[in-house]
DNA sequence: GTCTATATATTGATAGAC
DNA sequence: GTCTATCAATATATAGAC
């Protein structure tokens, strides 16, 4: 039964990811997270010097998770197909967003509000999707600056529908928003075809 | 200098509105708010039985404030003009949203996350704008069920741009989103004209 | 390396003096 | 009606036994 380097640090991060998602960044205490991870309370500070370090680990976890997640969205498809697949996947999870909200939007807000030194991490949290959407649009032939701008407004719109669905407790806000975004993508794809 | 019924309760609500906005619903302690309001700490519980009651008062304040605020958006204009004026006003405050976020979005999320018995208030917080946008669309001749649906997605989109602007610390996300919404409104207005 | 026991500050809330 | 003194619970964090 001998374990080498214990997996407690990893368990703590996993438990923190879940609780921060459910109750916000300032919701759970160290004791709450330790209990969820089945790790002695005082022991948390052996693995993380302070609460902020645990938060940083959670942010790293999300960034890594989203980056790999975006990479696996319909990897064989065209950029336009991949974007639409990404949006459809979001629509399929509408019930979850209505029930517990979007983890990334919430995390970004909490990070910006908790002031220095955590605030700068807020942008990093949404960067993976932002970059991915931007690269898909670029690959569709959209001009670089326009792709960056469009990626921002599109992701903002999608996240706004999550937010609204959560506030109202009603998943039905998400589907029409997704349909609208798919129309926008189709419109962006058309003029690009004339370039070739 | 004799004051009748003291204004301390009102001062506490005003201080709480500001701090909840800046630091979230669970950020400030009762002591923080009391200090801001220049009211003795222990005295807070004379005016509000518990922290939740103060939160409720803050929610009431926002609902009342937004309801009167929506009523005064270009009162003389046509519904279409009023909607566009509302969006332009939001765009004009882009810097504020990028710096401190949107108070209502944040409040709604915190309320839903703080569980019973406060969670149901989340919907009430965004109701004033939702209803106002819906009534403007109805007045433009949009079918009732469609107006409700469009109001939700439009407000969600706008709020999403606030959220994104806050996360990135960049106000420039808001203007293009607002322009997109104005185009949508113009499109909704056109078919309605054929009905008369 | 791991965990227990504890220190210290702050939380929401109460009792009761003025 | 107003404010002071204080409570019990919980927060993060540390020191040191195992």
Distance between the termini of chain A: 63 Å
Please give the oligomerization state of what you see. homodimer
Which class of secondary structure composition applies to the elements of chain A?
mainly alpha
Number of helices of chain A: 10
CATH class of the largest domain in chain A: Mainly Alpha
Q: Can you summarize the main beta sheet of chain A?
A: none
Helix fraction of chain A? Answer: over 70%
Mean pLDDT level of chain A: 94
Q: Which chains make the largest contact? A: A-B, 38 and 38 residues
Order of helices and strands of chain A: HHHHHHHHHH
User: Which CATH architecture of the largest domain in chain A would you pick?
Assistant: Orthogonal Bundle
The CATH superfamily of the largest domain in chain A is Tetracycline Repressor, domain 2
Q: Give the CA-based shape of chain A.
A: elongated
How many individual domains of chain A?
Answer: 2
Low-confidence stretches of chain A: none
- From the alpha carbons, calculate the radius of gyration of chain A and give it in angstroms: 19 Å
Count the strands of chain A? 0
């Amino acid at each position: 039964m001998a374990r080498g380097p214990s997996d407690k640090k990893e368990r703590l991060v996993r438990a923190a990811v879940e609780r921060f998602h459910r109750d916000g960044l300032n919701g759970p205490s160290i004791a709450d997270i330790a209990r969820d991870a089945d790790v002695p309370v005082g022991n948390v500070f052996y693995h993380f010097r302070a609460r902020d370090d645990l938060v940083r680990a959670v942010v790293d976890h999300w960034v890594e998770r989203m980056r790999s997640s975006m990479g696996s969205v319909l990897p064989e498809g065209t950029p336009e197909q991949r974007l639409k697949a990404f949006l459809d996947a979001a629509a399929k999870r509408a019930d979850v967003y209505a029930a517990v909200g979007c983890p990334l939007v919430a995390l970004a807000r909490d990070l910006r509000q908790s002031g220095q030194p955590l605030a700068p991490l807020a942008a990093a949290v949404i960067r993976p999707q932002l970059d991915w959407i931007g690269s898909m649009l670029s690959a569709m032939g959209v001009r670089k600056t326009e792709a960056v701008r469009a990626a921002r407004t599109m992701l903002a719109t999608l996240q706004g529908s999550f937010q609204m669905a959560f506030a109202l407790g009603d998943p039905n806000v998400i589907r029409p928003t997704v349909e609208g975004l798919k129309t926008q993508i189709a419109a962006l794809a058309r003029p690009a075809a004339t370039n070739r």
